[in-house]
Specification:
The complex is a heterodimer of chains A (252) and B (322). Chain A has 252 residues and is of the alpha/beta class. Chain A has 10 helices and 10 strands. Chain A has 2 domains: 1-78 and 169-252, Rossmann fold (3-Layer(aba) Sandwich); 91-168, no CATH class. Chain A has helices spanning 41-49, 71-76, 94-101, 110-114, 118-137, 153-165, 183-198, 210-216, 234-239, 241-248, and strands at residues 3-12, 15-25, 30-34, 56-61, 64-65, 79-81, 171-175, 202-206, 219-224, 227-232. In chain A, the strands form 2 sheets. Chain A has a 6-stranded mixed beta sheet with strand order 6-7-8-3-9-10, with helices on both faces. A 4-stranded antiparallel beta sheet of chain A has the order 2-1-4-5, with helices on one face. Chain B has a single domain (39-321), classed as ABC transporter involved in vitamin B12 uptake, BtuC. Classes of the chains: A alpha/beta (252), B mainly alpha (322).
């Protein structure tokens, strides 16, 4: 297991946003995380990426506890993410956003640049080339120089995925990557996620589009009111009475 | 394109060269007069340029620090004391004036950089005032009177050289791994952290760099004006530096320099222009000074330096239309 959550809890005041959640993500899997609004999905991603700390339980990545580490250390261990409410750097160009995402892969130093060493320029060009390749992969090469704030919603989501991939992460956390997209864009992102997973990145996918989740995930965890109510392969989840009750309401 | 044409300059070269020579020597003479007349203005513009860059250092990672008048005071006093009490070479004195505030920036930054926005600004104002009041009450440096009669060791050469070195540093930072990380922190610190950027370390480094540059400016100013006194390092001074940077624009390191040069020269320009068109000296010119400042902030929110970019963009657009 690459990522293991063991009885993870997080409460805000009296609200148990995440309550003793336990589940594990297998290496190379596309693991879906679904649940009604307010089930605690985004809180869980914030806990895994270190933006907030759990009030209980443990999170283990590749055998190492990460639940008390600051976000940049967790990122260095191989966790990258996108955000439900898109957090691109609005004033930077699309390509500069992706280049910023390469921070963990770059090795150039300020000193090299100050000494006008050719290696500094070379590294910067390599970073730019890699970013161009990633933008091409999400189909946005021709928008590379556009300010992120000027991109359409769907384009911004794709740049954010490219930026997360720029770190070459072991685990990619995607928070509703298809929200606000049209069906054609949704299926393109679905194909992209499948391709990313086939290249060895493990994906933890929070998504409201059930059709997409059912078609690309191998394992699905269902949250409701901060608790895991079901887990298993898509076919089992689709017929689980607990899941149907959570989404549609229980029969009286 | 010009391959088939004879070169006209080669045939009648002597008279043409002569004319150019004459005009060149006149220009050089004008230039020398200009430099001699405005030596101090240029010197102060250079010092203010350094101060503007010192604020730009923290602004470039999105932090509003107003501690730089305090750092400047430390650089000024440290260097002045070394000059007066130990006859060290000027380069060593300048180095000490640069390093001393930088060393202090680290213990200041560790607790203070946990604060954000206006809270950071207020905490750093506090630091500046503590430094200033410390010097007011320090008998060794003559308290509020300060040190006078410091030998003049800084001139246009050393000021402009310091400015060039500092500007070079900021220019070379752009596009490096660190430079990209600073931009990311400025735009969205939390997002930057989840990309593996240690925001605290970067913010601390820039606060320290800003302190070093402010200290260098303080050391140069002390040896340019022969004196240091606590009154030169007030909260108002910290705000002045911020205004230079903001008026010039903080998108590029040249912006703060443009702002500092513009605002340092503005009173001189107004004096020259004012006496030629009959505006009397005094409050009216101060009013004009303020009005121009306000106009820049209102109509060029990205700073004077953005004019150049706007012009460039318009030319591109016209080029596409044509």
């Amino acid at each position: 297991m690459l990522l293991e959550l063991e009885r993870v809890s997080r409460s805000f005041g009296g609200v148990h946003a995440v309550d003793r959640c336990s589940f594990a993500v297998r290496q190379g899997d596309i693991h879906g995380l679904i649940g009604p609004n307010g089930a605690g999905k985004t809180t869980l991603l914030n806990l895994v990426s270190g933006l907030i700390q759990p009030t209980g339980g443990s999170i283990v990545l590749a055998g190492r506890r990460i639940d008390r580490l600051p976000p940049h250390r967790i990122a260095a261990l191989g966790v990258a993410r996108t955000y439900q409410n898109i957090r691109l750097f609005p004033d930077l160009s699309a390509i500069s956003n992706v280049i910023a995402g390469e921070h963990l892969r770059r090795r150039d130093t300020v000193l090299e640049s100050l000494l006008l060493l050719p290696s500094a320029r070379r590294e910067q060009e390599t970073a730019r080339e890699r970013a161009r390749a990633l933008l091409a992969r999400v189909g946005l090469l021709e928008r590379a120089e556009e300010r992120a704030a000027n991109l359409s919603y769907g384009e911004q989501r794709r740049v954010e995925i490219a930026r997360a991939l720029a770190a070459d992460p072991a685990v990619l956390l995607l928070d509703e990557p298809t929200a606000g997209m049209n069906p054609a864009e949704v299926s393109a992102v679905g194909r992209l996620i499948a391709e990313v997973a086939s290249q060895g990145h493990t994906v933890l996918l929070v998504e409201h589009n059930v059709k997409l989740v059912m078609s690309i995930c191998r394992t699905i965890t269902v949250l409701d009111f901060g608790e895991v109510i079901a887990e298993g392969p898509p076919a089992a989840i689709a017929t689980s009475p607990a899941v149907i009750a959570a989404y549609l309401g229980a029969k009286p | 394109m010009a391959g088939g044409e004879p070169r006209p300059t080669e045939t009648g070269s002597t008279p043409v060269d002569h004319r150019y020579d004459a005009s060149l020597s006149v220009n050089l003479q004008d230039l020398r007069d200009f430099f001699l007349t405005y030596q101090s203005v240029i010197g102060f513009a250079g010092i203010n340029g350094l101060l503007a860059l010192s604020v730009y250092a923290t602004l470039s990672c999105g932090q509003l620090s107003l501690a730089n008048a305090g750092f400047m005071a430390i650089g000024a006093y440290a260097s002045a004391l070394l000059t007066v009490h130990a006859s060290l070479p000027f380069a060593v004195v300048l180095l000490a004036g640069t390093v001393a505030p930088a060393l202090l920036a680290v213990p200041l930054g560790l607790p203070v950089l946990r604060l954000r926005g206006v809270f950071l600004a207020i905490a750093t104002i506090g630091f500046g005032e503590v430094v200033r009041l410390g010097f007011v009450n320090w008998e060794y440096t003559n308290g509020a009177l300060g040190l006078v009669g410091i030998p003049q060791r800084a001139g246009l050469g050393s000021i402009l050289a310091a400015l060039a070195v500092t500007l070079f540093l900021f220019l070379r930072l752009r596009g490096t791994r660190t430079g990209c990380a600073l931009e990311a922190i400025r735009e969205d610190e939390a997002a930057a952290r989840t990309m593996g950027i240690d925001s605290t370390a970067h913010k601390l480094a820039m606060l320290t760099l800003g302190a070093a540059v402010a200290g260098l400016a303080g050391a140069l100013e002390a040896h340019f004006t022969f004196m240091v006194s606590p009154g030169g390092y007030t909260f108002g001074r910290a705000v002045d530096m911020l205004v230079f940077a903001v008026v010039g624009g903080t998108a590029h390191p040249l912006g703060p320099l443009v702002g500092a040069a513009f605002l340092t020269a503005l009173p001189e320009i107004l004096r020259a222009a004012g006496s030629s068109i009959g505006i009397p000296p005094g409050p009216l010119r101060l009013f004009l000074n303020g009005a121009i400042l306000l106009a820049v902030i209102l109509f060029l929110p990205e700073g004077i330096a953005s004019l150049w970019r706007r012009y460039g963009r318009r030319r591109v657009r016209e080029g596409h239309a044509a």
